[in-house]
Each structure stands twice: as C-alpha cells, then as structure tokens.
User: Fold these one by one.
Assistant:
Number 1:
Amino acid sequence: MKYIEELREGERIGEVYLCKHKQTATTKAGKPYDSLILQDKTGTLDAKIWDVGSSGIEEFDKLDYIYVVGDVTSFQGALQLNVKRVKKMSETDVNPSDYLPVSEYNIEEMYQKLLAYIAQMKHREQIDAAENEELRSFPTDKMCDVGDTQIYNGISYRIDAVEVRDNLRNLDQHGYQDEVSEKLKKGIGVDEKLNLQSYERETITFGNGYDQPLTYVEKTEHVTPKLVLVTMTIQNISYEDEEDMLPVANPLTYIKKTADHTEFDWREFERGERNLYYRENMPIWISDSEGGSWYYCKKMKKGDCATIQFGYLVDEDLLDEMVMELNFGDGLQDGAWNFIELF
C-alpha cells in the first residue's frame, strides 16, 4: 500500500483509501463533478471526479472504502488526485487500522504518561479527601463543659449556666437587634404572649448543576424553636488594662456524633421570614453589656468582671448537636478555636 504522505506530483496510483467526505458540485460551465477527501492513517488528500458519468466510476458513499485510480496533480500548492476509476471495497478486504490517524508519539510512552497522570490525580483525590475529612472532623480535644474556664491573653471566659425556654418573655427589649425587634413586633415566630411558634423548616441540598439543580429542598419538617439563654462571666485576670473591645457574641456551632468520631454539621436550612433569627447562628438578644456595643464588651481594666447573657434561637431537634464556639483570632490558623458543650 502506498500511503498518502508518500504520494508525489505526477504519479499515477491505484490504491484503496477511506472516503472521508463526498460532495457533488458543478463547474462554472454547469457540469457536475464530485469533490472527495480521501484518508489513510498518514493524512488526507483532496480528490476530484470530473467525469461522474463514466462507466469506470462505481456508486459509493461517504465513509466507504474505495479503490481509486488516478493522477496526482498539484492545485494551489497542495496535492490533488484526478480520479479516473472508482470501485467500492468491502470492509472485509481492508485493515481499518491503515485508515485511522495515528499519533506521531510513541504509544508505550504515551500510555506510561497516562498511567502516571492517573496516579497523580488519584493521589490528589486522596489528599483532597483527607483535607475534607479534616475540615469535617470536630476537634473534641478543644471541648470543655459548662462551668469550665477558657483563658486567652489574660481574659477568662466562663459559661455559668444554660437555660432553655419556650418563650421570649421578660427579656429587655433593648437587647434585641433592631431587625429582630421589628420582626417580633409584627408577630413573626411568636404569639401575643411571646410564646415561640412551630414552623416548617426546609433542608437545602446542593446538587451538581447538571443532572441535579444547584440547590433543592431535600425535605421539609415541622419543628419547634427554643430560646437558649447562656450566661457568661468575663474577667480581666491579667496585670494590665485591656485596650481592645472584647468579642463576646459567640456563634453556635452544630456537630454530629457517630460511634467513632464527631464532625461538623454543615446542613443548610431555609426558614423563610424567620431566617434573620437564625442568621449565622448568632444570638438574637444580648443583655446589658455595661456600655459595650452589640457584639463587644467594653474595654476592661485589670480585675474588671462582667456577667452577660446571650439568647439564641435553636430548633428543638438540634439542641443535642449545639456547642458554643469561642474563636480567639481569625480562625483555626490564627487563633485558638475552643468549644463549650452546652448540653
């Protein structure tokens, strides 16, 4: 077999090629002709059948294997075959591998590179899985109980008591965020006696965006919220005054316990108009912080002590999963991330 890459202008050939493309057209004089692209594993060749009605031209279609006789010419700098005869061949008479493009690179070397790439990707997946597992894992060694003390930079933080209520009665109205206060005035989530009302909570699941939506509701549950009232004592036990405002509005974190480990619970919920009450798991109410802002306690001189209460809304079925996060810094890397188990 003479491959296409071996053809030279002026030759007459008789070879079998794959007809990759076939199109009927007409010349300027109105005479029909067939324009072909022939292919073997070394490349492609433009071909023309100018006398389509000739007895030497058998019927064939695109993607047929054809035996062609013709003269190799040149047109606009590229080789072209002027076809004189065509005979359709049976697929059993050819070796398909002679007509499929092949790589110029060594197959074995490419295969080894592919195996190395697959191994690299699997290793990356293992690393990602380990990192994801680390992010999911809850650091139980940093857990303490109610009554224990956490100390950071000479400031002690102690949770004295945790109380669970069914209502928001007897809370100083000035302790609410403005937005929370406005919703409560409209009766959202409470009745006329400030009893907390049950509601429909949707669990949101994240899909892949292809055969699943990016987000969708996995399930809807009827749940009852509770007010968790946390009493904390903060004291400057250092030998100097604290010049910075102290962060005291600590968020809640939710965990899931299994037989062999504990991990963070990253579920997302949709609560409609009540979303504000649960936003970022921050408290909806804070008692008088002696002149401090909503999220911070005042600057404390050495020996100063303040007792503050925080009110969180927590769905009843999540009470056993709730812990309080004391994040002294900017996160796991830049601060001490401690947790207090409230129940």
Note: The chain has a mean pLDDT of 84.
Number 2:
Amino acid sequence: MIALANTPSFFVPASPAYSGTSTGALFVNDAIRRSFQEWQSTASRRLRIDGLQQQLLSIISECVVQSWDGYSARPLTPMAIDEARRFLAVIPDRLLPNEIVPEPHGGIAFVWNGQQSRSLALSLNGTKTIEYAAIYGPVDQDSGRRSFAGLLPSFILELISKFR
C-alpha cells in the first residue's frame, strides 16, 4: 500500500518506496510521481513569473515621475511599460531574466547574469525595438538592435539562451 502525505491541494507518495508489485500498482505509482513532478515544475515557473511581474509593477509604481532616481531620470513611458509587459508574456519560461531594472532615459531593461562575468541586458524603450548589450568575457562584447513587434526575434532568443 502506498502511504500518502497531504500537501496543499495535492496528494503525493510519502516516500519513493511502495509495496505494490502488480503492473497496475506500478503504473499508478509512476503516474503519481510524474504528476507531482509536473506540478512542482509548473508551480516553480509560476512563482518565478509572478516574482518578475511583481518586480515590474514595483518599478512602474516608483519610476513614473520625473527624477525618480534623485537626479534627472525621465519617467517610464507608457509605451516602454507596454513593451515590457508584452516581453514577459512572450518570453519562454526557460529564458526568464534574473532581474528587471528601470533605465534613466525612460526605458526598462531585462538582465541576465551568466557565469564568469558574462551578462546580457535587453532594453525596451517603447520604440518597438529591443536594444541589447552582451558581455561574453573580458574582451568579447556585442550590442545592437532588433525589431520587437510583440514576438521575440529568433536572434534575441538565441542570444538569451547563451546566458542561461
């Protein structure tokens, strides 16, 4: 018999050990294990996306006024905010950024920090373009622009994947 532990809205085996040996028991145990792993994975992704959306909301609420940084930063533009929301809606879960930061010119940047001083920043300014700056190491750098009309260009997806 399989011992079940009660977790919020979900029952899972208390341990990987089971005593059933029939084909049916093995099938049920495997189905429960796979369901729980999928639930964990989905919950983890949802928490990460929710965290990034909360981070974006916080940035929006704090940076919509002139000089939000205590100096002369421009307020975030409604177009940049819209692009940032669309970006979060279309980026694959496996490529989510490490952080979101406001930019003093009124844009919003998504940042990935890789290993060995590698980093990538994608900036959205409400101009239907993604500006990127990538540092691959002490010498190698790259920057440029790509169109952003609601779908991520394959170049940008490939670029992000180098920093995950």
Note: Residues 21 and 27 are 10 Å apart (CA to CA).
